[in-house]
Amino acid sequence: ENYYAILAENQKLHNELQELKGNIRVYCRIRPFLAGQKEKQTIVEYVGENGELIIVNPSKQGKEGRRSFKFNKVYGQAATQAEVYLDTQPLIQSVLDGYNVCIFAYGQTGSGKTYTMTGPDRVSEEEWGVNYRALNDLFRISQNRESTFSYEISVQMVEIYNEQVRDLLSSDGLLNCVITIIFCFFLDLHTLGILSGSQPNGLAVPDASMYPVKATSDVLHLMNVGLKNRAKSSTALNERSSRSHSIVSIHVRGIDQKTGSSMQSSLHLVDLAGSERVDRSEVTGDRLKEAQHINKSLSALGDVISALAQKSPHVPYRNSKLTQVLQSSLGGNAKTLMFVQLNPEVNSHSESMSTLKFAERVSGVELGAAKSSK
Ligand code: ADP
Q: Could you name the domain of life of the organism this protein comes from (predicted)?
């Protein structure tokens, strides 16, 4: 009950979100040192409640080695999953109000993207990431008996690897087919029939499989099927998952039982490929190609979001598969939240700086600051 009281208070943040320039929010999260890690020297000097962050380079003395940043929120190493979600929750309400919402996790491999989005490998309720909590809230709010709206919710899951989109819930292959058929048997087959005929316009992958869901557990089951499909294409799942983007899309259709008016919106949960730069002199062949595709798509995403934050008349959606696929859910009155993940270790200083510069660019702050200094 206490939790719901806090959520109600959160309405204030919700209102604040509505007024956001371009509806883009950037939250920065610093990963704690991991158990067994010897090095405790950190690049993080200050984390302010107002979203201020100061980073130091221990190998440079004085002013030169310090740099400050400002985001909508910064979470220090002690922040819990529940705290992080509290600031995300208003966006979930927005989905049921008819807004398209994209939530991204950006950062180098090992910086906590999957932890924030999903949680650790063996996840307890306390450690649930944004995905689980968002889905639970989505189903809870959509089943509110006082509302005159009735909702249908369905799920797609795709992976983008080397600029190719792959349907992770496709029923190709016997095993997947069996899993899917068994799964659908437990769902309402009628709903499936209705839904498979029409595509909400949230994700521009017209032929990616879509499944109706009635509860968080249905989505989690589908996500597991998706993860298994993802693993099949690679012997090392971790390697593959750090080099591809994964998108879980939740589509909502609602009809007001009283007035007959309808709404449609989507929530996209995007775990991006690792942003680490690859030393060109050290990699060749497939690895180089992967790295180039990742660079291209992450910088295209940065360009799109920063164009939206600047309210630029031209938004370059066509430059990557990632931005093409999410086009209808980025911009317009859609809302975007970017979790920027930082590894606090000293030897990650330069990688963390490039992550933060990306974050600064997408939050639209950098250009503003440059203008005022002229
Ligand atoms: P990424 O998805 O960016 O590659 P992970 O989410 O896999 O990174 O995080 C790397 C490791 O750090 C994992 O073992 C994860 O459980 C742990 N970790 C990340 N963030 C946190 C956190 N906030 N609290 C505790 N452990 C974390």
A: Eukaryota
